[in-house]
UniProtKB/TrEMBL annotation:
Record keywords, A-Z: Electron transport, FAD, Flavoprotein, Transport
Cofactor section: FAD
Listed GO biological process terms: fatty acid beta-oxidation using acyl-CoA dehydrogenase
Family membership noted in the UniProt record: Belongs to the ETF alpha-subunit/FixB family.
Protein name as annotated: Electron transfer flavoprotein subunit alpha/FixB family protein
Cofactor binding, per record: Binds 1 FAD per dimer.
PROSITE patterns: ETF_ALPHA (PS00696)
Annotated Gene3D superfamilies: HUPs, TPP-binding domain
Role noted for this protein: The electron transfer flavoprotein serves as a specific electron acceptor for other dehydrogenases. It transfers the electrons to the main respiratory chain via ETF-ubiquinone oxidoreductase (ETF dehydrogenase).
Amino acid sequence: MSEVLVLVDHIDGEVKKVTFELLTAARRIGEPSAVVVGTPGTAAKVRDALARYGAAKVYAAESEDAVTYLTTPKVDALATLAGSASPAAVLISATVEGKEVAGRLAARLNSGLLVDVVDIDADGVGTQSIFGGAFVVKAKVGNGLPVITVRPGGVEAEEADGAAAEAAVELPAVDAAKSARITGREQIVGGDRPELTEASVVVSGGRGVGSAESFAVVEKLADTLGGAVGASRAAVDSGYYPHQFQVGQTGKTVSPQLYIALGISGAIQHRAGMQTSKTIIAVNKDAEAPIFEIADFGVVGDLFQVAPQLTEAVAKR
Ligand code: FAD
C-alpha cells in the first residue's frame, strides 16, 4: 500500500485534532505516515497519539531550529520525504500556516495543489465547498505528487491501530537569510477556550449583538458548551470582537459539530466560513434573514432573551 504523508499539526508536542482527521483521510488513500517537525524528543512524545489514529510510521524531523523558523523546516522535511519515500500524496491542514507550507511544497516539487478540501476519497479526489457553499467541486491533482490541504473539521477523526514505527529525517540547515524567524509567540485573547478552527462547538455573534460589552452573552453560551467564540465581519469592523475571531471568506473557516449564529444575517461571505458545520443553529429576530436558509434549527427572536435561556438550560444538564 502506498504511503501518504501527513504533516502533524502541533504546538510544543500537543497534537491538534485536525491531525487525527488528516490521518483518517489518509487511510482512505493508502498507509498514513505522520511527519513530526519539532525540537528533539517531540516525535517520541506524540507517537502514541498518532498510533491511535492509524499512523503506520512516524517520521521525526527534529532539530533545535525546527520551531524557530516559519514554514521552512516543514517544507524541507516534506520535500526530503517526497524524494526518498515516494508517497502517493501529502496531506496538510488547511490552516494559515498549513496553506503556506502546502503552496511552497507544491512549487518546490512542481506538483499540483488541491486546497481546502472538506472530503477526500480513495482515488484522491477531493471535495471543495465553494462560493459560500453554493457549489461543490470534485477535483484531483493531475501533475506530480498531490499536495492537499484539508479543512479542519471536514473529515471526522476515527481511531485505528497503527504501528507508528519511528524513522528519522535529516533536516537541512535552514538558510536564515531566506527564511522568516519567529521572534515571539503570544496568546492575545481566548483564554482557556478551544481554538476557533479546532473547536467542536462555535458560538458566533454578529452586528445584532450591538456592542463589545454585550459579547459577554455570546461568550457565556460558548463557555457553557465548552466552545469557541466567533464573530461576523460586521461585528469585528464595529469593534465588538477582535479580528482573529472573524469567521468567513476573509476570516477563519470553521467546520464544527455545532455552530450557533447569534444576530448574524447570513451573508454569503459569512457562510463561506461556516457552511460546512455539521449542525447550524441560528437566532435572529428577522424571520427573513438568509441564515435561516442554511440553519438546521432556527429561533426567530431576540438573542438577548434566547441565548441566556439556552445558556441556563445547558448549564442545568
Ligand atoms: P448584519 O448583516 O447587519 O446582520 C445583523 C443581523 O442581526 C440581522 O439579520 C438582524 O436581524 C439581526 N439582529 C439584530 N438585533 C438582533 C437581536 N437583538 N436578536 C437577534 N437578532 C438580531 N462577513 C463575515 O461575516 N465574514 C467575512 O469573512 C466576510 N468577508 C467579506 C469579504 C468581502 C470581500 C465582502 C464584500 C464582505 C465580507 N463580509 C464578511 C461582510 C458580509 O457581506 C456581511 O456584511 C456581514 O457578514 C454581515 O454581518 P452580520 O450578519 O453580523 O451583520
